[in-house]
Design brief:
Blueprint: H1 3-7, H2 12-33, H3 43-51, H4 57-64, H5 68-80, E1 84-89, E2 92-100, H6 102-128, H7 133-146, H8 149-162, E3 165-169, H9 175-189, H10 194-201, H11 203-208, E4 213-219, E5 222-231, E6 237-244, H12 253-267, E7 272-277, H13 282-291, E8 294-295, E9 309-314
Helix pairs in contact: 4-5
Pfam families: Acetyltransf_1, MarR_2
Protein name: GNAT family N-acetyltransferase
Keywords: Acyltransferase, Transferase
C-alpha cells in the first residue's frame, strides 16, 4: 500500500505536495507543447497583471494569497524574461506598477488558448472523480481561516494530555496497534529480529496461549502503549514488548504499564519478573530501576542480539 495513503489525514500536506509536484511537472510539459517558455509558478501573477494592468506587487500578493516575498521573486523573474514591465507610480514613489511587456503581449494569446484547453481538461478530470475536489479544498481553506492548523493541533494536544490513561487487557482486534507500536520503537534503535515478529504477528499463540498477558495503555480511546508478560519455565514472567507512542511520551505511561504488569504478575502467583534491555537505553533502564528491577546475578542466553542487559524483580 502507498505509505502516504496509509498514514491517512495526518499526511495531508505531503499528499497535497506530491499532487502539486506532479501537476507542476505536467504543466511544464504542457507549456512546452504550446511552444511557451513559461514556468507554472508564474501563471497567477502573469495572468493577474494581464487582466489588471497597473496592479502592484502588494495587491497581487493579497489577491492570490502568496507571501509578498514569493510574489516579488516571481515578478523579478518575469521582468528578467521580458514578460513584464515595472514602473514607478507617479503619485507614490514607493509603489511599483506592473504591466505586460511587448513579449508578454505576444505570449498572451497562446497562453489563453492553453488555459482554455487546460480548464476543459481539469473540469473533465474532476468530474471523473465523483468528488467536488475544488470546492472541498475551498471549504478546508475556509475552516483553516477560522481556526489555524497550529491552533487545532495545540487543542488536540491539550485534550490528549488532559485525558486519563486507561490500562486494559489485550483483545484480538488490538494486534495491529500492538505490532505497530513495537515495530516503531524497535526500528528506531535496533533491527527487528525473528523472535520479535513471532510475538508481534501472533501474540495470541506466542504470548497468551502459554499463560502470558498483554496490557495496553489507552488514552482517549487510542492505544498509545503496550507491554507483555511472557510466562517462563520457572513460573516467573518476562516483562517484554514495552513500547509507548512518541506523541504520548511524558505522560508516565511506561511507569503505569510497568506497575500494572508487576501487579498482574503478583496476582498470577509469580515469584519474579525478568526483563532484557540494552545498555544504550538509559531512560528505559532508569524506569526499570525505579520499578525495583536489579541486574541479574548470572546472565542467561537470550534469543535477541540486542539484549546486553538482564534484570529481575523478586516478588514477595
Amino acid at each position: 500500500m502507498d505509505f502516504i495513503q496509509q498514514l491517512g489525514p495526518v499526511a495531508l500536506g505531503s499528499r497535497l505536495r506530491r499532487l502539486s509536484e506532479y501537476l507542476t511537472t505536467e504543466a511544464t510539459a504542457i507549456y512546452a507543447q504550446y511552444g511557451l517558455e513559461f514556468q507554472p509558478r508564474w501563471y497567477p501573477v502573469f495572468y493577474l497583471v494581464a487582466h489588471r494592468p497597473g496592479i502592484s506587487s502588494n495587491e497581487i500578493a493579497g489577491e492570490i494569497g502568496h507571501t509578498h516575498a514569493s510574489v516579488s521573486q516571481i515578478i523579478k523573474e518575469l521582468v528578467r524574461h521580458n514578460l513584464l514591465t515595472m514602473t514607478t507610480d507617479p503619485t507614490d514613489q514607493r509603489r511599483r506598477l506592473l504591466a505586460l511587456a511587448p513579449l508578454g503581449q505576444e505570449v498572451l494569446p497562446r497562453l489563453r488558448a492553453q488555459t482554455s484547453d487546460v480548464r476543459r481538461s481539469m473540469e473533465t478530470l474532476l468530474s471523473e472523480t465523483n468528488a467536488d475536489l475544488w470546492h472541498a479544498l475551498a471549504a478546508v481553506e475556509l475552516q483553516l481561516q477560522r481556526q489555524s492548523l497550529r491552533e487545532r493541533v495545540a487543542q488536540a494536544r491539550q485534550q490528549r494530555e488532559a485525558a486519563p490513561v486507561h490500562i486494559r487487557d489485550f483483545e484480538p482486534a488490538d494486534q495491529p496497534a500492538f505490532k505497530q507500536l513495537n515495530v516503531e520503537w524497535i526500528s528506531r534503535y535496533f533491527t527487528l529480529e525473528p523472535a520479535d515478529l513471532k510475538a508481534l504477528d501472533q501474540p495470541a499463540a506466542y504470548i497468551l496461549a502459554p499463560g502470558g498477558v498483554i496490557l495496553l495503555a489507552e488514552v482517549g480511546g487510542e492505544v498509545v502503549g503496550t507491554c507483555a508478560l511472557i510466562k517462563m519455565a520457572d513460573g516467573g514472567y518476562e516483562l517484554a514488548k514495552m513500547a509507548v507512542a512518541p506523541a504520548a511520551q511524558g505522560q508516565r505511561i511506561g511507569w503505569l504499564l510497568g506497575q500494572a504488569a508487576i501487579e498482574r504478575a503478583r496476582d498470577l502467583g509469580a515469584g519474579r519478573v525478568y526483563l532484557e534491555s540494552n545498555s544504550t537505553l538509559a531512560p528505559a533502564l532508569g524506569l526499570y530501576r525505579k520499578l525495583g528491577f536489579r541486574p541479574l546475578a548470572q546472565p542467561i542466553p537470550s534469543p535477541y542480539a540486542r539484549a546486553d542487559v538482564q534484570m529481575e524483580l523478586l516478588l514477595d
